[in-house]
Amino acid sequence: MRQNGFTLIELLIVVAIIGILATIGLPMYTKHQAKAKFTAGLAEISALKAGFEDTFNQGTTPTLALIGGTSPTANCAISVAGDVASGTGSIACEILDAPAPVQGKIITLVRSATDGWKCTTTAQEQYAAKGCTAGN
Length: 136
Prior knowledge:
Number of domains: 1
Radius of gyration: 23 Å
Strand order of the largest sheet: 1-2-3-4-5
Helix content: 25-40%
Largest sheet: 5 strands, mixed
Number of helices: 2
Shape: rod-shaped
């Protein structure tokens, strides 16, 4: 008599293989999600730079409303600060609704009168976008 189906050993091997793949795949997926959320937050505040510059050029202290922003967004709680007299300012994003490695981390675009815009973040370097200084 011929048997159809799988043996218990075969099923246990399949379950073990799935477990190994999940152990490897889930941390990689979480890292990918964290990087994507960081990039989305950076994109949201980068879009506000033009409005910030326009407001500065008019001699007005920038506010979130004046530069065309709203807060909170799907990715950030955004804040704006600026000093027209010194030509300095910043646009910051506190990352919201994100994986644990970047939840609550701050991305800051800092404007200096001499060097233009620079990006800094409190997130670890492995999650930060290229050109954004990590660990501050």
